[in-house]
Amino acid sequence: MCGIRTNKLPVAPYSIGFVYILPKSIAIIIYAIVFHQVRLSSKRVKSRNVTNITTACITLTFVKKNLIVMRNMLVILNILVCGGAPYLILMLWDFIPNGNPPKELYFISVNSLVSATAMMAIVTFFKDKRLRNRAYAWFVQSNSNARSLSVFE
């Protein structure tokens, strides 16, 4: 398999920066902003006229939602980090003088990035309850239509 050595061309460090580090940094920044906005909105919901018990329940609900958002964010980012780790190892290995990485590592690095991207899409799909329920309803409906057509033929 053909691979670009990082000690010859600066393409690999730029590609790791733009494909691997930059999207994760942007995702972390966006999730941090969302998390911060959720915390601010939970503080605004508190009213002086609401009893302490109701305020405690509202605060507990927002804390649970914040934890769910953070858990989902960490799961997605960990999938992406694990998928890009072989390519990062390959890039760092190329900086070693006279260090030739095994050819299988090129294959593993490309496939791990593709697999991580697919896994991220699947995990995102299963984490979204509304999307999952709509897809299930569509699947059940399309299967019932297919069965009704086959009965009349």
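The above is record 1. Record 2 follows with the same two-line structure.
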Amino acid sequence: MLITTVVIAALSCYALAGPVPMEIKIEDIDWKNGGEEMFMKILRRNRPVAPPSPCPEGWVFSREFAACYKKIVNVNFEEAEAECKKEGANLASIHSDAENQLLYKMVKTETPRFSDQDQLLLGARRVDGEWMWIDGTKFDYKPWAQGEPNDWQYTSEEAEERFEDCVAMYTSPLGSNEPVHPYLGRWNDNVCEGTYEAAICKKKPHYIHKIF
């Protein structure tokens, strides 16, 4: 009687995660001749299965921001956005300190940077003097580093002038002998044509698991 009670309780618990095969009844189990093995098969068959990820393989899911993120490397603005679009995404927009920290942690490095392009390229551009996210969301968060944006104008042999119409995040120290500064994780306006160390694609998940 005790064994039957335990069996019923166990099967009932597993039935919550998945249906117990209806063709197998407790009274049909021969406990003297392999019944225990059959019982274990029932439990294994009805073991809860982890649901698939809300994001494709290689992407990072954030429940807090209901978004999927993926790091890409060595791209300029146009290349990065094109690569993101191939996967149904855009270059990342950021709307809070918490989301900014998430992206910073995805790419931060202790290796000193020696180029203005050793930064994280974000999905914002300056259009007619106004900063805009390329995904169309509101530009409602802007943790600029001190003195930024400064719209520095570059000149080179390849182009007469290049303006800082894109946004990048400082993710590593500025030089080998320089201590960590509060600008890390802060933003800098920079040229769109440069090849950046990294960029982040962002898109909506397939679905979001409900938590009861």
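Residues 1-22 have pLDDT under 50 and may be disordered.
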